[in-house]
Design goal:
The chain has 7 helices and no strands. 23% of the residues are buried.
Amino acid sequence: MSPLKNQFSKWSLFRAHQIINATMSIFIATIAVLLMSYYSVTSHISLFYTWFFLFLAFLTFVSLTQLFIVLFGPGGMIFNIILLSLQLVSAGVMVPREMLPLFYEKMSAVLPATYVAEGLFTIAFGGSNIFSDVLAFLIILFSVLLLAVLRISFSRIKKADTVEKPKAALS
């Protein structure tokens, strides 16, 4: 049992995880946009929209990863490895999604890597509207957070043995 689970409520820990996730997503998106500017990477949308897209992408990925840990504990890492592999195949970067078997094509619609690939292509080359990818991130993000909140609300935190042994009386 983690010592933090004994000191803080399950909601305080969940809130702290979300603050850390959002802070790191802001930081990583900012670094990415600064590197794009430094290396003169052309963008077909504004830097703010690029930053916002990257922020949501990182936040969605880390929240999805955290969901499996919330659902299954440390064993959730196995699901994360499987999910990462599934996203690499179904995102449409290595092989167009239309050429994939139906299973991968259907899975790509609910995994964030698909929308990252589409959005980055839009940022780099122009074309489609990036707001549909942002909307997909928001739907996935809220779904993942809702599942995590439901799981946490139905979980019981086991308290560690806090019963102290009686101290011997002084003679």
